[in-house]
Amino acid sequence: MKRWSDTIDVNVPIEYVWKYFDQSLEQTRKIMPNIEEHRLIHSSGERVGNVYRQAYQVGERKEEYEVTIMEHEDEDSRKKLTYSYTLAGVYDIQATYLLEKIDEYKTRFTYSSSNRPRRWYLRVLILFSNDQAVTNFVRRVKRVAEEDYQKSEG
């Protein structure tokens, strides 16, 4: 299994950043523009255990998978969302978004991801992968949140 993680400070209130992880397609697409579908297909009655059908497309390649919410925490100064899914039948992926309130207008955002190949020969490929996608993602969340917040305040 390979793990990646990155942390960045976002200059907006914690609730403002948290809205991007509310499971709505509109908010999800702002930080993950390749997502084409994100809809609830099974409700557990709580957030944990909910299952969503998600589809994304990059170029000609389109993937569909089921995303299961594994952990959901929504406190005033700390928010956490962990989900898992299997990509293309060959990788088990788990991702966590952690938001921590620094002050009224600053939030620390940590994104962690793990990737476990289901086939032994893919383990070699994953050894050579880097954390660039994780770094790009945390930067995109920061940019989108700060730009949206400035527009809403200005």
UniProtKB/TrEMBL annotation:
**Top-level division of the source organism's lineage:** Bacteria
Q: Which InterPro entries match?
A: Polyketide_cyclase/dehydratase, START-like_dom_sf
A Pfam family found in this protein is Polyketide_cyc2
Q: What is this protein called?
A: Polyketide cyclase / dehydrase and lipid transport
In its UniProt entry, the species of origin is given as: Salimicrobium flavidum
